[in-house]
Design goal:
The structure holds 2 protein chains of 2 kinds.
Chain A: H1 2-27, H2 35-42, H3 44-76, H4 83-95, H5 98-109, H6 115-123, H7 136-161, H8 165-173, H9 178-206, H10 210-218, H11 229-238, H12 243-273
Chain B: H1 3-16, H2 18-24, H3 27-34, H4 41-64, H5 69-74, H6 86-132, H7 138-150, H8 153-167, H9 173-180, H10 184-197, H11 200-208, H12 213-241, H13 245-250, H14 259-271, H15 279-299, H16 301-314
Helix pairs in contact in B: 6-9, 6-10, 6-12, 6-15, 7-10, 10-12, 10-16, 12-16, 14-15
Classes of the chains: A mainly alpha, B mainly alpha.
Chain lengths: ~270, ~325
C-alpha cells in the first residue's frame, strides 16, 4: 500500500512542485511582482497571436466537429457499406505525428513539387498559394481538421454505441423518421461526448504550435515568430532569452485555456440538466 | 397473437426476466421485425469523399517515397515515376548525415519504452491504489488529479523547460523521459476501469485467505486490469512517439533527437540556402516513422476503441 501511495503521490507532488516553481520564476531572481503580466496584457504581439488562435478556434473547430458528427452518425446508422473500413481509415490520420502531418501537407501545398504545383501546371491555371499570408490560416486549419476529424468521430461514435436499441425501436413504433431520430435521440446522446471533443479542440487550438512551427520553414515570410501564443513563448525563451516573460506568457495562456475549457464544460453540463 | 395471449406473454416475461425473452426469439428475426436499415449508396458516396480526404496525404507519401529527388520535381505527385527508388531512399535515409536517422529511431524507441512504459506502470499502480484503498486525503488527491487532466501538456512544456534548465538536466534523455512519465489521463482511465472491473468481494476474499496486498495485486488485480493497462500503454505510446514540442525545447544536441524533431531538422536544413535538397529522404523518413505506429493501431483496434469509449463516456 505504501508503494501505491508513493506512486500515486509522486506525480502529484511533482506537479505541485512545478507549479510552485513556475510562480517563483515569474517573479524572477529579483522580485518583479506582476510586472511581467502587465507587460503581457499590454503586448500587441501577444494580442495578435491570441487573436489568430481565437479566429482559428472559431472557424476550424466548428467545421471539424460538424464533419465528425456527420461521420459518426453515418457510421452508426448501419446504412453504410463497409462501415468498419470508413471507421478505421478516418481515424488513421490521428496516428500520424503532427510534425509529419504538417510536413506532408506542407509539401503538398508547395508549388514546386506539391499537388498544388501539379494542379497548376496540369490545368494551366494559377491557384492561390496556400502558404501565402491570406490562406495560411486555412491551410493550417485543413491540417488540423485532417488530423482530428477521425479522433473526434470515434469519441462521438462511442457515445452513440451505448444508446439502448429499445429507444430506436420505440421511436420507430411511434413513427419517427430518420432525421427525427437523429435530432431527438442521437444528438442528445452525443452531447457529453461532444463537450469532451469540444474541450480537447479548444485546448488544441489555444496551444497550437507544432503545425505552424513546421510550416514556418516552408513559408518563413508568412508565419511570424509570434504566430501563435505558444510559438511566441517558445521564441521568446529560445531566441530572445527572455525566460521570465516567456514563462508568464505560458502561464497566461494556460489559465486562458483552462478557463475557456471550464466554461465549455459548465455550459455543456448545464444544458444537459435542463 | 391475440391481446389476451400477448398479455400473458408479457406477464411471463416479467416473471422470467427480460434476458430470457431476448434469447427465446432468434436474434435475426428480432432485428428484421424492428429495424430494417437499408444500405444507402448516397451516404456511402458521401463518406467516400471523406475517406479520400483522409487517405490522400498518406497515399501521396507512399508514392513519393518511391521517387528519386529529381523525379520528385518532374513527375505528377499522385502517380509513380518510372524508376522505383524506395529501397535506395530507405538506404539513403539511414546513411545520410552519418546514420543520424537510425540514431533518432533508437532515441525514439528509448523514450517510448522508458517514458510510455513507465507512465503506464505508474498510472496503473496509482489508479489501482486510488480505486481500491481509502486513505486520509483521498478526496484531495482525486481533485488534484482531475485538475491536472485539464492542464494541457504543452502549456507545461515551457515552464518545465525553465525548471529543468535550472536543474541542469536539459539536453539529456531524462529531460524528455521524466515529463512523459506522468499521465493523469492514464491514471484516470485506470482508476475508472479498476472501479468497474474489480469486485471488492474478490479482493476481500483474497485478504481473508491470507494473501498479501502485493500478491493480490499481482495475481488478481493485474489480470483483471489488463485491458485497461494495454489501452493506457497504447495512448502513452502514441503520445510519446509523436511528441515534438517537448523534445524540441529540451534538446539541442542532434544525437538525442527523436524522429519528429530530427526530420524537421532535415527539413530546415534542406530549406536553408547552403543545404542539400534531400526531400526524397525526408519523405521516406516520414513514411518510416509512421509505419510502425499505423501497424500498431491496426492490430490493437479493440483497445483504442474501448479506451476512447471509457474516456468520453465517463469524462
Amino acid at each position: 500500500m505504501v508503494v501505491f501511495l508513493f506512486a500515486l503521490v509522486a506525480p502529484v507532488i511533482y506537479a505541485s512542485y512545478l507549479s510552485v516553481y513556475q510562480n517563483k520564476l515569474v517573479g524572477g531572481r529579483s522580485f518583479a511582482g506582476l510586472a511581467n503580466y502587465t507587460t503581457a496584457v499590454l503586448d500587441p504581439q501577444f494580442y495578435a497571436a491570441l487573436w489568430r488562435v481565437t479566429l482559428f478556434l472559431l472557424v476550424q473547430v466548428p467545421i471539424m466537429l460538424a464533419l465528425s458528427t456527420i461521420a459518426a452518425i453515418a457510421i452508426d446508422s448501419a446504412r453504410l457499406y463497409f462501415s468498419a473500413l470508413f471507421r478505421i481509415s478516418l481515424f488513421l490520420p490521428y496516428a500520424v505525428p503532427s510534425v509529419i502531418a504538417a510536413l506532408m501537407w506542407g509539401f503538398m501545398y508547395g508549388t514546386d513539387f506539391g499537388l498544388v504545383g501539379n494542379l497548376n501546371s496540369f490545368l494551366g491555371i494559377r491557384l492561390p498559394d496556400p502558404l501565402s499570408s491570406n490562406f495560411v490560416l486555412i491551410a493550417l486549419g485543413n491540417i488540423s481538421t485532417w488530423e482530428f476529424v477521425g479522433y473526434n468521430m470515434l469519441i462521438l461514435y462511442a457515445a452513440l454505441r451505448i444508446v439502448p436499441k429499445d429507444l430506436y425501436e420505440a421511436a420507430e413504433i411511434d413513427g419517427a423518421g430518420t432525421f427525427q431520430v437523429i435530432r431527438s435521440i442521437k444528438l442528445p446522446a452525443m452531447r457529453p461526448a461532444f463537450v469532451v471533443a469540444l474541450i480537447f479542440s479548444v485546448i488544441g487550438s489555444f496551444q497550437l504550435f507544432n503545425e505552424p512551427n513546421v510550416l514556418k520553414t516552408l513559408a518563413p515570410n508568412t508565419i511570424s515568430s509570434n504566430f501563435t501564443p505558444n510559438m511566441y513563448a517558445y521564441n521568446l525563451s529560445f531566441s530572445g532569452q527572455q525566460f521570465n516573460y516567456s514563462a508568464s506568457i505560458a502561464i497566461v495562456m494556460g489559465v486562458i485555456t483552462m478557463a475557456v475549457a471550464y466554461a465549455v464544460q459548465v455550459i455543456g453540463v448545464r444544458r444537459e440538466n435542463r | 397473437m391475440s391481446g389476451n395471449t400477448q398479455n400473458k406473454a408479457v406477464e411471463h416475461d416479467m416473471r422470467i426476466g427480460r434476458s430470457k425473452r431476448a434469447r427465446a426469439i432468434p436474434k435475426k428475426q428480432l432485428r428484421k421485425t424492428t429495424r430494417t436499415p437499408r444500405r444507402s449508396v448516397l451516404l456511402t458516396a458521401v463518406m467516400c469523399v471523406m475517406l479520400v480526404y483522409s487517405l490522400i496525404p498518406l497515399v501521396w507519401l507512399v508514392i513519393n517515397s518511391t521517387k528519386t529527388q529529381p523525379s520528385l520535381f518532374s513527375t505528377f505527385g499522385l502517380w509513380f515515376s518510372g524508376d522505383f527508388a524506395l529501397w535506395d531512399n530507405i538506404v539513403g535515409t539511414f546513411t545520410y548525415g552519418g546514420g543520424e536517422f537510425g540514431r533518432w529511431l533508437l532515441n525514439t524507441l528509448l523514450y517510448v519504452i522508458v517514458g510510455a512504459g513507465g507512465a503506464t506502470v505508474l498510472a496503473t499502480l496509482a489508479g489501482y491504489g486510488l480505486a481500491c484503498f481509502t486513505f486520509p486525503g483521498k478526496r484531495a488527491v482525486l481533485a488534484i488529479i482531475l485538475g491536472t487532466i485539464a492542464i494541457p501538456g504543452t502549456a507545461l512544456a515551457v515552464p518545465t523547460f525553465l525548471m529543468f534548465s535550472a536543474l541542469g538536466i536539459t539536453n539529456s534523455p531524462w529531460a524528455v523521459i521524466i515529463p512523459s512519465l506522468i499521465s493523469p489521463f492514464g491514471l484516470y482511465l485506470i482508476w475508472t476501469f479498476a472501479a468497474d472491473a474489480l469486485p471488492v468481494e474478490l479482493l476481500e476474499a483474497a485478504r481473508i485467505d491470507g494473501a498479501g496486498e502485493f500478491r493480490i495485486f499481482r495475481s488478481i488485480s493485474l489480470r483483471l486490469l489488463m485491458p485497461g493497462f494495454v489501452t493506457v500503454l497504447l495512448f502513452t505510446f502514441v503520445a510519446t512517439w509523436n511528441n515534438y514540442f517537448l523534445p524540441l525545447i529540451m534538446l539541442s544536441d542532434p544525437k538525442w533527437f527523436p524522429l519528429t524533431v530530427g526530420l524537421n531538422n532535415w527539413n530546415e536544413q534542406a530549406r536553408s540556402s547552403g543545404g542539400h535538397a534531400i526531400y526524397n529522404l525526408i519523405i521516406t523518413g516520414s513514411l518510416l516513422t509512421i509505419v510502425p505506429i499505423v501497424i500498431m493501431f491496426l492490430i490493437m483496434q479493440r483497445y483504442w476503441q474501448s479506451g476512447l469509449a471509457a474516456g468520453s463516456v465517463k469524462g
